[in-house]
């Protein structure tokens, strides 16, 4: 059974950092891309990043580029989202999701419907 479990969210002050983890199980980790999304209160879901199955060049939303980095560790079946210089507008519930097999981050990865499994989310609050 496929599972994605996020962790690492919490309360942080503006300018602070957090690292989110997405631990996956139930499928061949190295065969799938993983995306991070977020949903802020009252806003649409936003794709934050997408990382290819082979760890190739990641995609980042313009709003987080230069501040967030995503990486994967095959030995741990885990994808990370390292977030630096957090801003109040980064406050949201963050989700990781599995990109459908043979889909690509570029193009395909922009559509939530192209992700077939989702985690339960981890909340991030950026506030003084």
The level of helicity is: under 10%
Count of alpha/pi helices = 0
Topology as a string of helices (H) and strands (E): EEEEEEEEEEE
Global geometry: globular
C-alpha termini separation: 40 Å
Question: What Rg is obtained from the alpha carbons, in whole angstroms?
Answer: 13 Å
Question: Which helices and strands appear, and what pairs or packs with what?
Answer:
Elements: E1 3-7, E2 10-12, E3 18-25, E4 34-39, E5 46-51, E6 59-60, E7 68-73, E8 78-83, E9 92-99, E10 115-118, E11 122-126
Explain what you see.
It is built from no helices and eleven strands. β5 (46-51) and β6 form a beta hairpin. The strands form two sheets. Strands 2, 4, 5, 6, 9, 10 and 11 form a seven-stranded mixed beta sheet that branches. The mean pLDDT is 95. It is an all-beta fold and 128 residues long. The termini are far apart.
Short description:
0% of the residues lie in helices and 46% in strands. It has 128 residues and is an all-beta fold. Strands 2, 4, 5, 6, 9, 10 and 11 form a seven-stranded mixed sheet that branches. It has a four-stranded antiparallel sheet with strand order 1-3-8-7, with no helix packed on it.
């Amino acid at each position: 059974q496929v599972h994605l479990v996020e962790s690492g969210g919490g309360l942080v002050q503006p300018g602070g950092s957090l690292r989110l983890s997405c631990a996956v199980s139930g499928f061949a980790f190295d065969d799938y891309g993983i995306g991070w999304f977020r949903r802020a209160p009252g806003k649409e879901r936003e794709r934050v990043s997408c990382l290819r199955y082979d760890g190739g060049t990641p995609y980042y939303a313009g709003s987080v580029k230069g501040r967030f980095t995503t990486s994967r560790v095959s030995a741990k079946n885990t994808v990370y989202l390292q977030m630096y210089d957090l801003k109040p507008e980064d406050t949201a519930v963050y989700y990781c999701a599995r990109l459908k097999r043979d889909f690509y981050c570029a193009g395909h990865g922009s559509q939530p419907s192209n992700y077939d499994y989702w985690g339960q989310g981890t909340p991030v609050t950026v506030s003084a």
